[in-house]
Amino acid sequence: MECRPYLLHALSPLHVGTGQSVGVIDLPLARQKATGIPIVPGSSLKGVLRELRRPREESGSASGLHDAVFGPRRKKPGVEGDEPGDYAGALVVGDARLLALPVRSFVGTFALVTSPLLLALARRDLGALAEAWPVVAPLEGRRAQVASLKGSLVVYSAEGSAAAVYLEDLDLPVAQEPDTALATWAQGLAGLLPDAERELLTRRLVLVDDETMSFLWETATQVDTRVSIEPDTGTAADGHLWTEESLPAETLLVGVLGATGTFNAAPRKLTPDEVLGEALGGEGAVLQLGGKATVGRGRCRLSAWRPSVVGGAR
């Protein structure tokens, strides 16, 4: 199987949830069970890609290509059509896992916050490309690290006081020495963004300890209160008040796409690289994921790590 990691950049608040909750939030985000790290399930992304690449004509070579990549379409809608197809699609879509979370900052409006654990998990996903992305050492104690004190937009440093970052209600001292490993990650991730947006990442990226990061991914997400309106009266409907959790705009997530060659029963024969190319389309495709699409939620940019994107170089 050929694998290709991808970066998912939320351009608006993103809600991909579980549909139920036993906690205080009625519609929480989907999260990993053991760690609580927010994710976008691979099934959600695969469904969006399948619909995005669907050909206009239901028959012909384009339809056969689509079915070979994503699998044959259901012959019947609903539960009746939930039966095994004649062959499996060649595309495998893994979950997208949180990589950097935008957090309100006292200086610079917001910071993109990550941790050694999140970077280590991302590095594992990079597979053969991982050698160009350095290991980031764990931080000792409650503190933060930036790629460069001079270049950072989110570090507060007053005369006579140590440099610090202020995230939500947390104040974290910042190490004075530059972190070359974090700088490499910042430049590399920026290489996956459009040119005009690269400074958004390189000058706002902050590394915090894993304990602080786990607190932030539980408490620094966006929670909105919503209500249904009675069409006859224009007032709030009784009992129709709920809360909904989202990942804020500018969140970064990382995942892996995989592909095999198409199966013998498939209508088209494709190599794994051709399967991935067909699924991804052009660079930086903008997708809509999750709920509330009609009010602009869930706009995301999908960028693939290619062999030419190593350590930030294109």
UniProtKB/TrEMBL annotation:
This is Type III-B CRISPR module RAMP protein Cmr4. Residues 53-82 are annotated as: Disordered. PANTHER family: CRISPR SYSTEM CMR SUBUNIT CMR4. Keywords: Antiviral defense. GO terms for biological process: defense response to virus. Pfam families: RAMPs. Residues 8-301 form the CRISPR type III-associated protein domain. It comes from the Bacteria. InterPro entries: CRISPR-assoc_RAMP_Cmr4 (IPR013410), RAMP_III_fam (IPR005537).
